[in-house]
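Q: Structure for this?
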Amino acid sequence: PTMADSQALLVLENFIGGKFVPCSSYIDSYNPSTGDVYCRVPDSGKEEVEAAVKAAKDAFPIWSSKSPLERSQILNKLADLIEHDLEAFAQAESKDQGKTITFARTVDIPRAAHNFRFFASSILHHVTECTEMPAMGCVHYTSRAPVGVAGLISPWNLPLYLLTWKIAPAIACGNTVVAKPSEMTSVTAWMMCKLLEKAGVPPGVVNVVFGTGAKAGEALVGHPDVPLISFTGSTLTAQRITERSAPHCKRLSLELGGKNPAIIFDDADLSQCIPTTVRSSFANQGEICLCTSRIFVQRGIYSEFLKRFVAETKKWKTGNPSDPTVNVGALISKEHLEKVRNYVKKAQAEGARVLCGEGVDPLAVPPGNQKGYFMLPTVIAEVKDESCCMQEEIFGPVTCVVAFDTEEEVIKRANGVKYGLSATVWSGNVGRVHRVAHRLQSGLVWTNCWLVRDLNLPFGGMKASGIGREGAKDSYEFFTEVKTITIKH
Ligand code: NAD
């Protein structure tokens, strides 16, 4: 960037011990809908992580000794402050990530505020266990205590939503945290830091260190005074984090990628199923770990489904994310756009048919967005199960539709990938819905709906989609250390 440009750039600072601190070097951050550098993110490393961990350690004794009610009130206040600034947060998230302003306004930011409100409430309602052994004259009970400094690492697809889904339970339980958001989407985390003091979060309870995974992330994972790491991101990074934390026997929660099937039986209500499956395939540009990317349709309704599904997909408007009528914004980066496009090319080379979107329909974006990372929602048919498009996580606006004949066959094919995060099943037959849901290797199964969540219940994946679950009880268990105490009377 030139001198003139750099003056207009937004420059973020780390938030350590309740203070914003500049960093000695910075990373450029792009606006995905224009392709311009618009922000500079601290390129933190060992030194910054060290300072943040120290601040978190220093804050731990006071924060962990507060009552759940005191912490709950602070979390609620933080939720109020985020809600108060909802529009500013939504604008920032849309600009930073490329997602539509509508999605940021209705999903990302409301959920970020709700994460604090939800754990502010749930922390008040946990009970521990107690058993009696009259013959021995003993009573046993469990007690739970915060673990210490939690390391929290989050991805770029739902930036503030996923970061707060970790910060809220961690601090509600009495831990202090060092968080590292994705270097590609750091702005809303920085904005949240500005609200912490007003909410009453004491200095050092929430520290945010910005930077890359290779530098800041690795320093955090390798730090001996960070006994637990909650990570959401790709399976490949999770493997690296597991290796790095193994010498310290750290507690890990890993929320990873997916290759989520939708299974559509011939008795499905297509008027509900089609718009929902278009949404589950393309919401947030397909950049949600829970997005559908393999659609199995029973043969009797296959051609009708395809026709209606493509027609519905074509109604989705791609363009400037700040236009509230747009459904598909920009992908996160130039490299990611190339990667997603390449999957479509590979499918074509293998003989699959691209029914709409990439390479088939014209993409028209406004003049100011010509250098943005846009791609039309793309539907591919006649893809082989072993094709990379049916096996690997694409994480973009691409979905594959294939036909199946029997229940037995489709369960096997749906389970035939390394991932196991979520699945949807569409059928009017209640017995079938239960049978299929039980047999799918998937941490979440939605039948006749998608993305309806009760935060009380476990969220997470099987197989390469992760280890551990998050939710009211699960997050409480992860972010606390349990002790069994026996009293003889
Ligand atoms: P990523 O793994 O590249 O990065 C995630 C985070 O890890 C970033 O903050 C990154 O800087 C950091 N990181 C990278 N290398 C690291 C290292 N060696 N040590 C420590 N930290 C490191 O993932 P991404 O591309 O940002 O996100 C997309 C992925 O996240 C997809 O696979 C998606 O499915 C997954 N995801 C999963 C869930 C879920 O809940 N299961 C939710 C959203 C996204």
